[in-house]
Amino acid sequence: MAETETSTPLEEQDTLYGQLGGAPVITEAVDRFYRLVLADPELAPYFAAADVSVVKRHQVLLLSSVLGGPQSYGGRGLDEAHAGLGVSGPHYDKVAAHLLDVLADLGAPAHIAEAVASTLDAVREQIVEHPVPAGEGAR
User: Looking at the whole model, is its pTM more than 0.85?
Assistant: First the structure.
């Protein structure tokens, strides 16, 4: 069978990236994800000053990389990229839920959703900012 724009090269089919459908599905997932996030009145303010097209491009690269795709994410570290945004735990959880919902809607197998959820758990502390209790500020 000849490759089409939506097919995945054989060497990528053994990765989660390939099993999900490669670049076209990752791009669609990110587009749907940001439609949900930007439509969420609690989450949209985090992106008010952002160039969403750049954020989406970085998200495609990051998700592709996490799933074993050929693209590598070369952007800022997650902690640096989210520093000062004041991302709360509940808001992080909403973002994660939106991403997992999109993957489910796209028919992602459970093992792929579990891998993404595991990664989301692993990087949570790099993104969520914990308020410093009164009296415990920098000395």
Answer: no
